[in-house]
Amino acid sequence: MTHSLRVIPPIHELLQQDKLLEIKDDYHLSDASLKRGVQKVTESLRTLILKEEIQLNSREEAIQHIIEQTIVWIHEYYSFKLKPVINATGTVLHTNLGRARIAESALMHMVEVGRHYSTLEFDETKGERGSRHSIVEEYLKELTGAEAAMVVNNNAASVYMILSAFAKGKEAIVSRGELVEIGGSFRVSSIMEESGTILKEVGTTNKTHLNDYKQVINDNTNMIMKVHTSNFHMIGFTESVEREELSHLAKQHNLICYEDLGSGMVYDLTQHGIGQEPLVKQVIESGVDLVSFSGDKLLGGPQVGVIAGKKQYINQLKKHQLARVLRVDKLSYAALEETLRLLLRAEYKSLEIPTVRDVTISKEELKDRVLNFLKRTNEIFNNVKFAGVDLESKVGGGTLPEVVLPSYGLVLKVEKVTINHLMYKLRGMEMPVIARVENNQIIFDFRTISHEEEDILIKQLVVLDDSL
After folding, report:
1. HAMAP family per the record (predicted)?
2. Which of 174, 187, 271, 366 has the fewest CB atoms within 10 Å distance of its CB?
3. Taking Cα atoms as reference points, which of 287, 188, 169 lies closest to residue 229?
4. Looking at residue 64, what is its pLDDT?
5. Would you state the pLDDT for residue 349?
6. Does residue 99 fall inside a structural domain?
């Protein structure tokens, strides 16, 4: 063990190796970056020797090991951690895979805004400072029917800001059946506590009545909060209070009625027979004072939190100190602006939004694409085999949990190779392919594979086929 440690050259000597100097030039590295890589690899090598997991017999062997592992370290370290993948799971709003895909025209708008200076906070008509709040407010007002609207960086931020501004040190009444947990173990009750709001729970898990709200209203109550349970569906012996009743009760006691909608449907999916989610406009019409929802769910845009409602409350929020803390950057505004423009135009324009397109596409259209894919690849592969299969997709992202979307896709079949190994190889592709396992089979659901991605998928599968 001691002998193996002694054969490791000092760092300054390793840095003079011709091969490492070539790597430095190839990757355009600074002296410090190369040194950091060599140090990391050398430290790791010492640990392996001490654990007796590796034995080196000569100085040359140690140098060769360090050079090889430094190349690996540099390649991994300077590779993008955020990279595109092919989502073959069939879950349209896959939280782990980035939720909503951005429309092509919205991406182009982001590029233009990012490439140049922009009117983020400049009024070109008056030639003076403007407000970023005005960029999309008119579009949001038209789509939601609200008096005013603003945007923050996500919907959890919306909830936190509204509670901080209007219920800090005060009581907000919420039904126990609506105290949901959203992604990453974040709970509505925890956000309320962090905002300084005093949580007043009413009712039971499965049943809450209007009288439950009435009984707890007191001088310290400032808000009735409704949380739309968009990320789960409860059936059976249940009862909840309609937002119209809560809005009326709030007005009677001069309280704010706020609903956290979560997913926030603006494009009417019910016209396609999909779900029973209320439109944001319908929620506003019910009389609530404020609503909030996500931009990267059913809206089909970037990650933002939208707050819409009565002008007097939105104006207060715009002036609140948290408005700066939680504000949205220019690229997100660019993507949101074009997404809203598409939603406001003819229905065929709305279908250019990937989320809307992927949720509403029919099983028959997907089947036609799969059969065409099979024809194209019939003679290409030797080891990889496919078969068409009926599937069921999910909307995902904590949205429309009760909705099942009839879909169509492929079953991947490879003899004498385990599912785990195949999934590992698919994830290791140049553009990773994220499939799902169902009934002990690897499934490619074409609902979330775009036309453009089919060619990429074929190239990736050729590489997989050659490696087997």
Report:
1. SelA
2. 271
3. 188
4. 93
5. 86
6. no
How far does Cα 259 stand from its chain's mean position?
22
pTM: 0.91
* Residue keyed to tokens 């039971």: 204
CA 341-352-334 angle, 5° bins? 40
Which residue type occupies 33? S
Enumerate residues 6+ apart whose C-beta is below 8 A from 394.
90, 91, 92, 403, 404, 405
Q: Which of 321, 352, 383 represents a domain boundary (last residue)?
A: 352
* Number of structural domains the chain divides into: 3
Residues 180 and 114 in one domain: yes
Comparing 4-8, 88-92, 288-292, 382-386, which segment has the lowest mean pLDDT? 4-8
389 half-sphere exposure, CB direction, 13 A CA radius? 18
pLDDT at 176 over 90: no
As a whole number, the mean pLDDT across the chain is 92
Are both 187 and 252 inside the same structural domain?
yes
By the 8 A CB rule, do 182 and 231 touch? yes
Strands (E), 41-101: 86-87
254 sits in the region (left: phi over 0; alpha: psi -120 to 50; else beta) called left
Continuous segment of H or E residues that includes residue 224: strand 221-227
Lookup result for tokens 């089909």: 300
User: Phi and psi (nearest 5°) for 441?
Assistant: -135, 150
Q: Which long-range contacts (CB under 8 A, 24 or more apart) does 138-143 make?
A: 139/337, 139/340, 139/341, 139/344, 140/306, 140/308, 140/340, 141/308, 142/344, 143/266, 143/280, 143/281, 143/340, 143/343, 143/344
Domain range enclosing 65: 2-77
Beta-bridged to residue 201, according to DSSP, are 174
In three state form, how does the secondary structure of 290-349 look?
EEEEECCCCCCCCCCEEEEECHHHHHHHHHCCHHHHCCCCHHHHHHHHHHHHHHHCCHHH
The set of residues, in sequence order, having a beta carbon less than 8 Å from that of 379 and lying 6+ positions away, is: none
Do 257 and 322 reside in the same domain of the chain?
yes
